[in-house]
Amino acid sequence: IRDKKDRSYNVPNFLSQLMFVIPDNVKVESIQIDTDNSVVMEVTSPKYAQLGYFVSRLKLAGIITNVNMEVLGMSSSISIKISGRLP
Q: For labelling alongside 57, which of 5, 17, 27, 84 has CA 20 to 30 A away?
C-alpha cells in the first residue's frame, strides 16, 4: 500500500516540476513511467541548444536521476529520448 501511495504522489509531482523547466521551443511528445519509477520521454525541438538546456535543467533540479539522452532523429526538428528514474 505504501508503494502505491508513493507512486501516486511521485507522478503528479514529476509532471508539476516538469512544466516549470520546459523551454518555450521544446515539445514533449510522450512520457512513459513504469512501476519501478523509470521514466522515458520523447522530446522534440527545432533547436538542439534548447534540448540541451532542458536535459541539464532536469539533472540540476533533481527532477530525474540517472539521466540518459539519445538522439532519435534530425530533420526540421530534432527528436531525442530522455530516460532516467524518479527520485
A: 5
